[in-house]
Amino acid sequence: MNKERVIEDKYLELENTYTSLPQKLFSSENPDKVPVPKVVMFNEVLAKELGIDVQFLKSKEGVDFLSGNRILSATTPIAQAYAGHQFGYFTMLGDGRAVLLGEYVAKNGERVDIQLKGAGRTQYSRGGDGKAALGPMLREYIISEAMNALGIDTTRSLAVVTTGEEVIREKELQGSILTRVAKSHIRVGTFQFISNWGTLEELKELADYSINRHFKKGISEENPYIYLLHEVVKKQADLIAKWQLVGFIHGVMNTDNMVISGETIDYGPCAFMDVYDTNTVFSSIDTYGRYAYGNQPQIGAWNLARFAETLLPLLHENQDEAIKIAQDAIENYMSLYKKNWHSGMRRKLGLFTEENEDEKLIEELLFIMQRYKADYTNTFCDLTLERVHEGELYESREFKKWYELWQKRLTKQSNSVGEYKKLMEKNNPTVIPRNYRVEESLKEAVDNNDYSSIKSLLKAVTRPYDYSNIDEYYTKPDKSRDTPYRTYCGT
Ligand code: AMP
Ligand code: MG
């Protein structure tokens, strides 16, 4: 790369261990040069958490770095190859608009990927332009940071830059680049890629790398690959239960959008459910509701089955035995998921102990909520705050009966009212990024270059469990909406 595109390494040390993997898993790609880079969002808290020099990121060199205009001299930016089942159909994919600048070893010793999304075409771009528009990148920033504050594993957003370029969609939009920070970008689809187009030795290399990077304890196991499978299953059973508990709908749970580290990734068409309905779908392209709210746990199992299939030759030398190990792992996912979800739901209802009747109690409440089109987030807040008097749901006979049973159930534990209220506050967010508030703040930023709404929305969604200071502006459901909310991906 020519000299003026390079920054000295003294500011930030990045490594590229991923390039030690078989060459077919990546291609060397430099980010495009952009005309007028401007940082519009900068996550100083995250930069500090990671231990990256904030002064550097705020400097002229920092802007060049975050826009891809210059790269650190000792790194090799790459695009990663992967495959994936998209809505059930298997395809060869790869980073079509993302460039992995390198890995950074954070202050806490954890290795993270630093990736620019929207940095230009790569070998895997297919028909795409490799670019990203400002609105969707800001949306990813808001929702991923909200997810993090909700206590859900997720890729993070370090910055959003406008490029000074137009990108062509249905109309011309402002070009933008998001700096994504992730534990890694190893996807179920990465394993599918190597399983389909690599050798057994190459599959083993990817699995060993993954174990070494994410599941170190597996190294000393008799069969580290069985350990890998079980750990990935555990992570997803934990993650997807957390999504369900806060009403998060990912929207595009293709196998290329499921990472083995257990982080939520790819914020294209995701959105939070407002009215409780298991059939909720926001994504414009999810015509058959494959990724509807209520289907997410099952889709998790389906994706993990695809992951397990790729590992079969490493699980056991005898194929029947290998299949049995894989099947056991997937069954284990469903039972772990249910266990996580039930204990999460119990916490949402202030229950410390476990009783046989709890499952029925939970199901009954959700059933009534669906019938009365209750706002998912606010109903649990109302229970926490004992605000359950007005409105169709709370005045209904079914709810009153349920409420009595719940009160009775609470007395079966020895914990005080104060204790169970605290438990509920910790598990029932008051603020989620409500779709209309997100849209409103994006519009102001994109159309009027005014970022004040985004900043106040971010402030609210990054303290979701703060009951001492609830801002009604962000907790009010959107009553004015008469058409269903729609989200779009790949924009
Ligand atoms: P997604 O739906 O965001 O998971 O993207 C699916 C695939 O399309 C990924 O391989 C992306 O890298 C690729 N892709 C999305 N948008 C673009 C774009 N504008 N240019 C090139 N590739 C893209
Ligand atoms: Mg994706």
TrEMBL record:
Keywords, alphabetical: ATP-binding, Magnesium, Manganese, Metal-binding, Nucleotide-binding, Nucleotidyltransferase, Transferase
Cell cycle listed as a keyword: no
Residue ranges that the Swiss-Prot or TrEMBL entry lists as coiled coil: none
Summary of the function given for this chain in its UniProt record: Nucleotidyltransferase involved in the post-translational modification of proteins. It can catalyze the addition of adenosine monophosphate (AMP) or uridine monophosphate (UMP) to a protein, resulting in modifications known as AMPylation and UMPylation.
EC number: 2.7.7.-, 2.7.7.108
Residue positions binding ATP: G94, G96, R97, K117, D129, G130, R180, R187, D266
Protein name (record): Protein nucleotidyltransferase YdiU
Gene designation: ydiU
Organism: Clostridium collagenovorans DSM 3089
